[in-house]
Write a structure and sequence with these properties.
Keywords: Membrane, Transmembrane, Transmembrane helix
Radius of gyration: 13 Å
Largest sheet: none
Shape: elongated
Order of helices and strands: HH
Strand content: under 5%
Distance between the termini: 36 Å
Length: about 50
């Protein structure tokens, strides 16, 4: 498993659960899911560091 696969893992699993091929044109769904997940994690991390 490469680093890219590990980073994209959450979106890939959600796409597979929805029945969408994450490597096709619907990869935008995987990108959106990963963006939302990592945004929330980053904001929580910043909030913990700042607070």
């Amino acid at each position: 498993m490469s680093i890219a696969d590990m980073i994209l893992w959450p979106g890939t699993k959600i796409c597979e659960r929805m029945g969408v091929d994450p490597t096709s044109d619907a990869g935008l769904i995987r990108w959106m899911v990963n963006t939302l997940i990592y945004l929330v994690l980053s904001l929580v991390l910043v909030w913990i560091i700042v607070a």
